[in-house]
Amino acid sequence: MPSLAKLNHWLAQIPDAPVALMLRVFPALVFWQSGQTKVDGFSIKDSTWFLFENEYALPLIPPELAAVLATVAEHLLPALLILGLLTRLSALGLLAMTAVIQTFVYPDAWSTHGLWAAPLLAVVARGPGLWSLDHRLGLDHGARG
Length: 145
Description:
It is built from 7 helices and 2 strands. The chain is mainly α and 145 residues long. It is elongated and about 55 Å long. It has a two-stranded antiparallel sheet with strand order 1-2.
């Protein structure tokens, strides 16, 4: 049976690139899937307008604007995150959305929101990894193998 030090050494050999990719993809899919529930083709569903007027009521932002902004963000930011393009900014945007949802919409869902926030924060802090367009284009110099 290997010692804990040997096991830790072996586990430390896992490359950063696939880990960074998973940290980008899985929270992105949560937001993408949520965005898909808000649209029918290229139109925002009537049910989305209703939710933003009644259930998701946010302070300071009219529900019509909030519905459009959230729907666009839930499609654009996850796509950028998966591609690894403008990655840290995209992750930061989704992290901000998570904070708004936690604070104003579903304050009792902190464990779910924490599961979204943790990988997004890791991407903000550590970058997109080598398997990203940011790395290929030289836009993120903090990418690690």
